[in-house]
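User: Teach me something about this protein's shape.
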Amino acid sequence: MKTLNFKLFMFLAISSLFVTSCQKSDGVVTTNPITEAETIALVESDDVTDDVNNIIDDYLIENEGISARSTEDSKYNPILTCATRTIVVTDTTKVVTLDFGEGCELPNGNIISGKIIMSYTVDTSVASFTVTYTFENFYFNDLSVEGENTLVRVRENENGNPQSTLTMDIKVTWPDGEFASKQGTKVREWIEGFETRDWSDNVFLITGNWAVTFKDGTVVSANITTPLRREMACRFIVSGVVELQKIQTSGTLDFGDGTCDDVATFTDENGVVTEITLRGRMF
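Assistant: First, the predicted structure itself:
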């Protein structure tokens, strides 16, 4: 019996030492750097929210009169023409379904399909407009999109420009089954193009922060430190800086000097700079 108790004591002691050693190793040695694939996935999921917001903005402008944009402008948004609309109205609320069928091409080359379902209170006299929207069988290029977002639209901010604050809670799934869940907030100021009905002249400055959780449980957080400039005539963000954080590691993603291209640079916490070609995520 004494021998058995001694063996049990030694087993527990060695096991405890092994667990402690692993914990120390995990806390000091393991770094898990931010990968290029994770960075590209963050950007791709961000493209989804930007383009969908632009569609909702244009719908509200044309149908709810929330902007000074001229309704007599000869130009029009081809996306709203492409979509089939279903509208259900009560005394105080409106539910709008925009059905893009098997696919509509945005002016910037992205392709969307499926449905966006918007719900909001009917009151165009207020200074702000709150819209909740969900997705049904919705695809952005080849990415499946699910979830619910809330958009608070202000007619004029302190700069006299339209502005929207987006609370995000979506899941984006790639064709190979990899997915990313995204939660956070983005503020988007519409600085150019809101006087016309042409998508190509729309320009936005974007701030905010969010976190993305990948299929394997990895979490990467993003915080915009220099406002992102998105010109809707371009498929890519043209300038701005985002700080990324993953466990003990961090880095910055710089979208450049305003040129429309698919190149960004990632600088890790040691100052090592890597050029990243956006799109084409490969886990």
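Now, about its shape. The chain is about 20% helix and 45% strand. The chain has a mean pLDDT of 81. If you'd like, I can walk through any region in more detail.
User: That's plenty for now, thanks!
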